[in-house]
Amino acid sequence: MMMGDESYAGARSWEHLEKVVKDLTGMPFILPTHQGRAAERILYGILGGMGKVFISNTHFDTTRANIEVTGATAIDILYDDALDSAADLPFKGNINLEKLVELIDINGSENIAAVIITVTNNSAGGQPVSMENVLAVRKICDTSQIPLVIDGCRVAENAYFIKHRSKEYANKSCKSIAQEMLHLGDAFVMSGKKDGMVNMGGLLTIKDESLATKAINQLIITEGFTSYGGLSGRDMEALAIGLVEVFDEDYLHYRIRSTTYLGEKLREKGIPVVWPIGGHAVYIDAKKMYHNIPVNEFPGQALVCDLYIKGGIRCCEIGSLMFGKYDELGDLIPAANELEKEILKQNLIKLSLKIMENPIPENSVKYLTDNKIATVCFVDENHKPYCINCFYAFDTQNYCLIMKSSKGTHHENMMNDSAAVSGTILPETIDTIQLKGMQFTGQLMSQEAIENLHLKSRYLKKFPMSLAIKGYIWAVKLEFLKHTDNTFGFGNKTVWSFRK
Fold first, then answer.
1. Contact 476, 376 (CB under 8 A)
2. Phi and psi at residue 398, in whole multiples of 5°?
3. Which of 80, 175, 438, 496 might form a disulfide with 425, Cβ 3.0–4.6 angstroms?
4. 251-344: what fold?
5. What fold, for 12-247?
């Protein structure tokens, strides 16, 4: 990212991105955009229009919106057994080949604007699509002279599933599998925020020169020149690197196994998840979990709200609120599924897994939760210790102590990210006979982690009056505890270590 070239035309970062994307897709015309939905708007704005039909395994929400705004129709065709959230099938994201042929016959091939294959199939539970299915769709499209678009936001994850679930691809790299799939398409659309591993950027690549010319004209009008498409040099450089690093086999295994681990633990507790677990998120079948809530009252969104209220967990509904429609009488036409999606952020996965594997003992959790004043010891750059007393809230999910301090304090200068601290927690009333207390060590957490974990809201929930006091939130990720509680016998101690 430090190498980002901000030249308006002919930037080195653009040339780098173009080279990487051509190698991946095999397509000659590369159009960068500021987001994936901008690429969708350009492509489907050209291909769509009144009377046109787009067919997909499942259209993503922005895909459907960009199609329907042109007056065209978007139709999803999954196999029926893929709609069973509990069915254990390797490629539940596949497009229904029989229905595809049927829809082409009904509507006429001249009215089918494109067939879109979404990999992985996000709105159907993050489920993968097999190479065999894409090859079959390619053959059908060739016969009917219909463009095939690959919506490949998570093409690397899909390639991982093919490698591990299709024997003929077991010895191929994930990148070569992705290349083979993308070479089958006539166009490729991507949001770089997914498998591009960037915070901004999208791509549209095209094989046909005449279609590319129309798309380039739209790009220049709405996004920017062809050598940046609304992106900074830094963004293009990051996307070029991300599209290489995402195919690291160890990274993909770690990411997908982490997601599966969470899904397995939820399933063990009786939570109805979409099975098998997808690559980037765990999907909960809200219709089964909240069977008492009718579809027209949106059980998926109810679960989303409950999770945020109870645990501060931000999720996404993928059901009738997102995809439902209303008939001429105003009655809801429900979506095929009522799901709730929990996306795993990579910088938080490792911490979450460690906590699940090695929980703090219940009696220590209760002590941390019941009390509210901690003494925290810092060490300055001259190795001199300095202690403060402060109110804290304990985050039971992420095992951290959350505090608030005013700006300009002496200890503020000692607060470097990951700095080691130690401290003690005593009850407000000391009983010398039934003595209780806790010693701890830990590391200061970065502001990014504090924001991602919504720690401020957890502190304010325990100390709402702190809103009236100016200051900033900081937190200590616990690494070691020694809990003394003489009510269980003199000298009784519970010891816990994050590193087990």
1. yes
2. -115, 5
3. 438
4. Aspartate Aminotransferase, domain 1 (3.90.1150)
5. Aspartate Aminotransferase; domain 2 (3.40.640)
Q: Write down the residue that tokens 């579809």 correspond to.
A: 295
- 281-285 vs 202-206, strand pairing mode: unpaired
pLDDT of 351 above 60: no
Distances (CA, A) of 309 to 283, 399, 419, 450: 19, 19, 32, 18
At 324 the pLDDT is 83
Per-residue confidence (pLDDT) for residue 1, from 0 to 100: 58
**Is there a contact between 363 and 483 (Cβ–Cβ < 8 Å)?**
yes
Among 6-20, 310-324, 391-405, which is the least confidently predicted range? 310-324
Q: Beta-strand (E) ranges in 359-471?
A: 373-379, 385-391, 393-395, 400-405, 420-425, 436-444
Beta bridge partners of 385: 379
Which helix (H) or strand (E) element contains residue 300?
helix 299-311
Torsion of CA 392, 395, 400, 403, to 10 degrees: -30
Indicate yes or no: pTM above 0.90.
Answer: no
Domain coordinates in residue numbering, the chain: 12-247, 251-344, 349-497
Average pLDDT, the chain: 89
Token pair in block for residue 450: 């504090």
Q: Which residue has the tokens 């063990």?
A: 268
Q: Where are the alpha helices (DSSP H) in 183-248?
A: 209-222, 233-245
The two most distant CA atoms of the chain are separated, in Å, by 87
Question: How many of the other CB atoms lie within 10 Å of CB of 328?
Answer: 5
- Encode pLDDT of 140-195 as tens digits: 999 999 999 999 999 999 999 999 999 999 999 999 999 999 999 999 999 998 88
Burial of 363 (0-12, 13-18, 19+ CB in 10 A): middle
Helices (H), 1-154: 12-25, 36-47, 61-68, 97-107, 131-144
Q: What is the pLDDT of residues 365-390, one digit of tens each?
A: 999 999 999 999 998 878 889 999 99
Alpha-carbon distance 417 to 108, whole Å?
Answer: 61
State residue 136's pLDDT score.
Answer: 98
Closest CA to 121 of 88, 82, 84: 82
Domain over 349-497 is classified CATH 2.30.110.10: yes
What distance in Å separates the CA atoms of residue 460 and residue 128, rounded to the nearest whole number? 41
pLDDT of residue 124: 80
129 phi/psi in degrees, rounded to 5: -115, 135
